[in-house]
Amino acid sequence: MNFTETAWKVFNQSIEDYHVSDDVNSLINNPFEKDTLERILYAKNWIDTVQWHLEDIIRDENIDPAEALQLKRTIDASNQKRTDLVEFIDSWFLTKFENITPKPDAKINTETPAWAVDRLSILALKVYHMSLEANRESASEEHRANCQAKLEVLLTQKEDLSTSIDQLLADIESGNVKMKVYKQMKMYNDDSLNPILYQKGQQK
Question: Residues 169, 171, 174, 176: is their CA dihedral positive or negative?
Answer without folding.
Answer: negative
